[in-house]
Design brief:
Elements: H1 3-24, H2 27-30, H3 34-37, E1 48-51, E2 56-58, H4 59-63, E3 68-73, H5 81-95, E4 103-108, H6 115-124, E5 133-137, H7 140-149, E6 155-156, E7 163-164, E8 168-173, E9 176-182, H8 189-198, E10 217-219, E11 226-228, H9 230-259
Parallel strand pairs: 3-4, 4-5
Antiparallel strand pairs: 1-2, 1-5, 3-8, 6-7, 8-9, 10-11
């Protein structure tokens, strides 16, 4: 084959790989950050809890036979805690399935929080009295066990009395992490995806804003519908172009041999 057609085919092949990569990368590497994906399948200790109504129970008993959505917070938080719980509340209301498919637990990591603080936090986000939302405190060592199991860190600033900590939401099923969400997203779509997954929906991949420019399959977190995305067409187009160019090149070479 002459050098010019060969270089053209190589260029088309490289373009095909470049465009296909965002569609072909596995979900755990593309749509879920490494910090989140390494928590999947972690075992979470079955610690004793004290609930906002004063009852005591254990984490496994609270979940029962349904998945449990766990969000970490503390009542005096002046940062992300209340917005985090509000995001979870809104996603739960929009997607549905609360009680039938899963329950929600807001777990305080501040040993200064009281049962009254739990009720105040539940009232602040409008879920006080919901039988499927639980707010709980636990002994310091018990909270540390759970935090250590899922790499959740928190440090108190003596000057302000506030805790420096990340935002973390866990989806647990039978005591193990099935999905984790670290950091507060700009919108609630990722929370909706998480809730859909707890309801048993198949999520083909998880899109991280700014990290997944193309996708072969799109999941609508508002409706739960899955459809083919335009990234699939871009994936197929370079491959078809490369095949076409190869056929034209080989046909031209055949005609040249026959003429010779």
């Amino acid at each position: 084959m002459r050098p010019e057609p060969r270089r053209a085919l190589v260029a088309l092949a490289m373009l095909t790989l470049a465009l296909a990569a965002p569609c072909a990368v596995p979900a755990a590497a593309d749509g879920v950050s490494r910090a989140e994906s390494r928590l999947v399948d972690r075992a979470v200790p079955d610690i004793p809890l004290r609930l906002a109504d004063g009852r005591t129970t254990r984490l496994a008993a609270l979940a029962g036979d349904r998945p449990l959505l766990v969000a970490f917070f503390y009542r005096r938080c002046a940062g992300v805690c209340t917005p985090l719980l509000e995001w979870v509340r809104d996603a739960v209301r929009e997607v549905g399935g609360l009680g039938a498919d899963y329950r929600v637990l807001a777990l305080s990591f501040d040993d200064a929080d009281t049962v009254a603080d739990l009720r105040a936090q539940a009232r602040a986000i409008g879920v006080l009295g919901s039988p499927h939302w639980s707010f709980a405190i636990a002994e310091r060592d018990a909270v540390a066990q759970v935090a250590g199991a899922v790499d959740f860190w928190y440090r108190r600033d003596p000057a302000t009395g506030q805790y420096d900590h990340p935002a973390l939401v866990l989806a647990l099923d039978r005591g193990r992490v099935v999905r984790a969400m670290l950091g507060a997203p700009g919108g609630s779509d990722r929370f909706r995806e998480l809730v859909w997954e707890l309801r048993g929906a198949f999520i083909p991949f998880y899109r991280v804003p700014g990290q997944t420019p193309l996708a072969c399959i799109a999941f609508d977190p508002r409706t739960g519908a899955t459809r083919l995305d335009w990234g699939l067409a871009l994936l197929a187009l370079p491959a078809l172009a490369a095949v076409g160019a190869a056929l034209v090149t080989f046909a031209g070479a055949g005609r040249h041999r026959r003429a010779a």
